[in-house]
Amino acid sequence: MSLEIKPAYEPESGGWSYLVADAGTGVAAIIDPIWVYDVVSGRTKTGFIDGLLSEAETRGWKVAWVLETHAHADHLSAAAHIRARTGAKVAIGTGICSVQENFARLFNLKDFPTDGRQFDRLLGDGDIIALGTLQIRVMETPGHTGDSVTYLVGDAAFIGDTLFEPGHGTARCDFPGGDAGRMFESVQKIHALPDDTRLFLCHDYPKQGAEPRCMVQVIESRNTNVHIHTSTGRDQFVALRRERDAHLDLPRLIFPALQINIRAGAAPGAEDNGVAYLRIPLNADIKSIIGGGRTRS
Questions:
Q1: How do the domains of the chain map onto residue ranges?
Q2: Angle at 197 between CA 196 and CA 199, to 5 degrees
Q3: Measured distance CA(71)–CA(266) in Å, rounded
C-alpha cells in the first residue's frame, strides 16, 4: 500500500492537521486543516496550512480533498483557503446540517442555508472516497458533536476529537448535538478496530517539555484510556462525562470558529463598508438561545 501520512502540529490550538496521500498516484487529502486566528486583532494567518500545501507541492502530490472530522469549536478551518488554492473538494459528515441549524440560530443568521450546500460532499456511514488507488471509508462516530465522523484508510483511522491520547481521555459531549451515550457507542466502534490500527488524533496538550502525540494504537487506547477502557460500562462513562462537562469552560475560539466552520472554512461576506464581521453573543447562554427553536436529532 502506498499510503503516506504527514502530520503537522499547530501549537496555539494544540491541533493536528494531516496530509494524507496515495504516493503511487500522487493524489492527496488534507484532514482537519487549521486556519490560525488571532482573537485580539481579528486577523487570520495561512502560514501553517501553507506549509502543508508546500509539502504536497514538493512531493508532487495533488490535493484533491479536504476532509473535516466535524465542525470544530476550538480552531478555524482552512478548508476554503485550500479549495481556492488547489480546487480540492471539501467534505464533512451529514450531521453538519443539524450543526448549521443550531449555530445559525445562535448567531441569528436568518438567511444562512442549513442544508450543507457550503460543502462539496456530505458523507454518511459507509461512504467511500477514492484517493488514487486508496479508499477512505467513512464511519459515523457522533457524541462529541452530531456530525463527527472517522476516516478509515489502510491501517489508519482519523478520529477527530472523539478520543485523545489515553492520559487525556475523551472529548466533551455538552455542545448542542453532543451526547455522552452516543460517544460511548462511537468509542466501542473505534476500539473494535484491529489492535494495531493507528488512531490519528485531532488534538494533544502535552506537558511542558514533552512532545505532542499525533497517534495511538487501538490496543493502547482500548486498555488504558482514563475515561473509557475495556471494563468501563455505558452508565459509568455517561456519568463521568456529564460530571466533567458541567465544569468545563467554553473553548477560547468557539464563537469565531463555528461561524467560519459551518461555512466550510469561509469568512462571512463583507458588509457595505467592505469589512467582514464575526458575531459574539453578549451575556447570553448558548443552550437557551439554541433551545428556543427546532433542532434535528
A1: 3-267
A2: 125
A3: 12
